[in-house]
Amino acid sequence: MITWITVCDTCKRDTWTEGTALTDGESLAALVERAAQDVTGVEVRRHSCLMGCTSACNVTVQARGKLAYTLGRFEPHSLAAEAIVGYAALHADSATGQVPYRSWPAGVKGHFVTRHPPLPDT
Pfam family of this protein, just one (predicted)? Predict the structure, then answer.
């Protein structure tokens, strides 16, 4: 089963300036895509606006039948991207999507915004 990382590509942190070539979300998305290239069970997609503007940069981690998570307040840096992908790989390996806190990469701690139950099968 695939765990999807959805990266908001329109996110702009408070430090973003008009006229910058890429949004912070586009920069983070490119880094996450690069970090996930060879990770089994993890795919990345971009989406315009996850509606978490006060917590930019935002991503979701989700898979069919599992708990889903929204994470935010990331800086568009490779360490953040690697932590996001590392967490997504653990999510992919989990039967329920729940990953023990002690296993979380340090770079995602403090970035969780919401948790969503899986959709019902019916």
Answer: DUF1636
Q: Under the phi-then-psi rule, with left for phi > 0, alpha for psi from -120 to 50, and beta for the rest, what region is 72? A: beta
In this structure, is the dihedral angle defined by the CA atoms of residues 34, 37, 114 and 51, taken in order, positive or negative?
positive
Q: What is the mean pLDDT of residues 21-34?
A: 94
Taking the alpha carbons at both ends of the chain, their separation in whole angstroms is 19
Place of tokens 């490119």: 30
* Average pLDDT for 65-72: 97
Output the pLDDT for position 21: 83
Question: Which has the closest alpha carbon to 15: 74, 80, 70, 78?
Answer: 74
Considering the four listed CATH numbers 3.30.420, 3.30.310, 3.40.30, 3.30.70, the one that applies to the domain covering 3-116 is 3.40.30
pLDDT at position 113 over 90: yes
* Phi, then psi, of 59 in degrees rounded to 5: -140, 155
pLDDT of amino acid 35: 98
pLDDT value at 122 more than 80: no
